[in-house]
Amino acid sequence: MKYAIETFDLTKTYDDFTAVDALNMKIDNKSIFGFLGPNGAGKTTTIKMLTCLVQATSGTANVAGYDIATNPNEVREKIGMVPQLVSLYSDLTVRENIDLCADFYGLPEDLKASRAEELMELVDIKYAQNKIVKQLSGGMKQKASVVASLIHQPEILFLDEPTIGLDPTTKRVLWDLVEELNSEGRTIILCSHDMYEVELLCDEIGIINGGILAAFDTPRGLKDTMINEQKNKKSSKNSEVIEIMDELRKEEGVEDSAAYDQLKEKIERKNRDLKELSVMISNLDESMLNHLNNVPGIHEIVEHDSGRLVMDIDSSDESVSQIISEIIGQGGNITSISTKDPSLEDVFMSVTTKYKKEGVDDG
Ligand SMILES: Nc1ncnc2c1ncn2[C@@H]1O[C@H](COP(=O)(O)OP(=O)(O)OP(=O)(O)O)[C@@H](O)[C@H]1O
Ligand SMILES: [Mg+2]
After folding, report:
1. Ligand 1: distance of its center to the CA of 210 in Å?
2. For residue 49, what are the contacts with CB-CB under 8 A and spacing of at least 6?
């Protein structure tokens, strides 16, 4: 089975409101998939359809090889789910809740006990196994919910914002667990607003907005698309400015002047495809700075009070190593260096606001 999940125009409407609109996506088997989107975008609704908790209005999906409409029982056997709002019985203990789940899946007694023990130890909730759920803290409930969802060893695990409100240590426990489950060959579907978490864990990411899948790629692929879009925007802006300048020049009848050409070159250089390189050189001096100012691949250097140099440099693959060689060649001692790429949060903002604008324009 190549895909753990494949959706076909999957749609959910509530009266005349479309919560999920003809969703088509393929999630690789044994991968960790990050599902992102603003509040109300349709993530939980999609997950509810894929886990057979609500019926799709139209379209369908295959989950673990079974159709959610025609084979919901087979789907349920293959999946586990940690819902956005923990859905344990609040008057039962942690252990009773876990046992109930195990019974639901028909696990034999010995297996039920050994798995419960193993999982409770893994997420560190065993100490609270005899506590009544309503007496637990939010994080403890979340851990108990994770154990309950994993008791039958599902092939596909859905986690709807599993680390929300968890302390940093507990978050890490869950992240480690996700990676471990994935290394055992399970597919993980992770809904999250935590970009760090998504970037750390996920192989591929889908961004949904207003019920529509707005982007789907690897984290690197999403960032590269954004970099290319920015490049294209810059270069088209550049040509527009030069065109206006040429027109004005014609209208004003300005003679060929060196000043005009210089200005044009400056605009072209400023809008050329550049990237930012930030370097800390412990023994930076005037002559080193002068030298760097004359290196062709460096277009602008800003020296910060901290001594950090922030440079606009050519964005070619070789430029960073060329500049490092120049600094070392001058006897410079580099103590830290970084380039600035768009973050996943930048991508998220760009994809979701772009959709909003397009939505308004279309409407
Ligand atoms: N039972 C329902 N009846 C009517 N509308 C609903 C129902 N369930 C969800 N919706 C609407 O569908 C849209 C998508 O909701 P959903 O819960 O899927 O969003 P989400 O992406 O999970 O958001 P969040 O990040 O806040 O959890 C929202 O506008 C929501 O109000
Ligand atoms: Mg949700």
Report:
1. 10
2. 10, 12, 20, 55, 56, 61, 68
Positions in the chain short of pLDDT 50: 360-363
- pTM of this structure: 0.82
Q: Which of 12, 16, 43 to mutate to test the pocket of ligand 1 (most atoms within 8 A of CB)?
A: 43
Q: How do residues 278-300 score in pLDDT, each as one tens digit?
A: 999 999 999 999 999 999 889 88
**How far is C-alpha 327 from the geometric centre of its chain's CA atoms?**
35
Shortest-distance Cα residue to atom 18 of ligand 1 = 42
* Residues with C-beta atoms within 5 A of ion ligand 2: 43-44, 84
> In the numeric block, which tokens belong to residue 34?
């990050």
Residues 6+ apart with CB under 8 A from 226: 342, 346, 347, 350
* Count of CB atoms situated within 10 Å of the CB of 131: 15
Burial pattern 56-94, b for ≥16 Cβ within 10 A else e, equals: beebbbbbbbbebeebbebbbebbbbbbeebebeeeebb
Dmax over Cα atoms in the chain, in whole Å? 93
CA of 37 to the centre of ligand 2 (A): 9
Q: What does 327-345 look like in DSSP terms, one character per residue?
A: HHHTT--EEEEEE----HH
Contact 97, 125 (CB under 8 A): no
User: If you take atom 4 of ligand 1, which residue's CA is the nearest one?
Assistant: 14
pLDDT in tens, 115-139: 999 999 988 899 999 999 999 998 8
Beta strand segments in the chain, E: 3-14, 17-23, 26-28, 32-36, 58-63, 66-67, 79-82, 156-160, 187-191, 204-209, 212-217, 274-281, 298-303, 308-314, 334-339
pLDDT of residue 360: 45
